[in-house]
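Good morning N.,

You mentioned wanting to compare the apo and holo forms, so I went ahead and generated the holo version with zinc ion. This is what I fed in:
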Amino acid sequence: MIRYGDDILLVDCGSKFPDETLLGIDLIIPDIAYLLEHPGKVRALIVTHGHEDHIGGIPYLLKQFPLPVYATRLTLGLIETKLKEHKLLSQTELKLIDSESTLRFGEIELSFFKTNHSIPDCLGIVFDTPEGTVVHTGDFKFDFTPVNHAYPDLQRMADIGKRGVLILLSESTNAERAGFTPSESLVGEHIEEAFMKADGKIIISTFASNVHRIQQIVNAAVRAGRKLTLLGRSMVNVVEVAAELGYLHIPEGMLVASDEAAGMPREEITVLCTGSQGEPLAALARLASGNHRQLEVLPGDTVILAATPIPGNERNVARIVDHFYQLQAKVIYGAGSSTGMHVSGHGSQEELKLMLTLMKPEYFIPIHGEYRMLYQHRLLAEAVGVRPDNIFVLNNGEVVEAHNGKAAVSGKIQAGNILVDGLGIGDIGSVVLRDRKQLSADGILIIVITLSKQEGKLLTKPDAISRGFVYVRNSEALMNEINELVVAELNKLLQSKISQWSVLKQTLKETLGNYLLTRTGRRPMILPLVIEV
Ligand SMILES: [Zn+2]
Ligand SMILES: [Zn+2]
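and this is what came out, ligand included:
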């Protein structure tokens, strides 16, 4: 978010997937509380590129906060697909820009520069304000032999630097990685080599959004005389949008449906699918477990994972590789640099230094990365001559303010994560998550107690119901002990004339909880239900 006077502009609005501690959560989106407090000032959303971590939150933002959205052609195409799904397309103002566009909002003037990344049509943004120039790089690498011949515009970047940059915000994903990130073209060579050697079916999986890599897969398939079948909803979506907008060139008649492919000779088929991260429900996992309706993997088929598992996904990917080997397929997998089947879309240390050197900022804010990456990026900036005092490694929500050529951290606004579960946005908090964690660890024990209102005593034997705690039929002794304990505890309370539900429930929870912990070593959630008749 960038603000000058009464004008606020937003850059990107992504989403991310939850880790395993966020049980049942579907998606994480940014907190927009600050925007809701300043409704009259927010002018537009500018989007640097079409990756999920930059566009995934847009529908949720627009539902609460309608705004015009500015992006390049491919990025807009991908945003449109999302807005269609959320039925927001007709009411949203979408504005097409490119690297030559200039925009003005109040006293903020915007211009752009082209960058290379693992998706085409990426922009860096220049904000010229009366207080100075702020540059946001978006995600980038320097690829001097890009697949789509969209070369990085070093001259433009140097010009921006020459005019003077007050603050540079630059992405930090690969700040821990030494050297240069190799060119995407290198992957194409390896893919083609593998295609030429393969004799059965080829099954290849990569990120659906990596249009450059998909183009190289298409090219290799053309050269090997193979047709192409697409599996997976996001793959079909992206290919459709990218081909329609001219970012992807697929020869006529090359795409075949999966049922058609099933009837063709093996050596004429390439299957391009989602699931390179081991996602259990994606096409690749279904092929690996033999659960695909039309296609099966046969001995001698070639499986290529043209992606590196993102940390946390290694186990799922490994399981799929095991399955393919069991089917006697040839599998090319492993960290991308070892197989040549993947290069990163993010610049490594030397490229981050190059950006810093071109922009020559007075102040520097590393963005887009875990804290350690931001920190490494700080060291790189220091190494190329940015004054250590002029580098701000920020936590989410921290504000940097610039005045008279001086910038400083000036405060904090509300910011952070909002959890999405089904149709609920932000209604799941730490209490619900704690409950889910407890339920998933040791299950639940429900105790139904029927009390007489008048006499204040137990009417029937308590009823204990277990889900995920113990299997009741095999635990008769334990269930009896639970019943006896509940009866004894209740009678004790009722005799001392204590009959408030809250006290009864709390006492039962504690006594029973302690008992079960010693008796079973487990901590189920205990839920006493009191019925008065
Ligand atoms: Zn990206
Ligand atoms: Zn990103």
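The chain has a mean pLDDT of 93.

Happy to go through it together on a call whenever suits you.

Best,
F.
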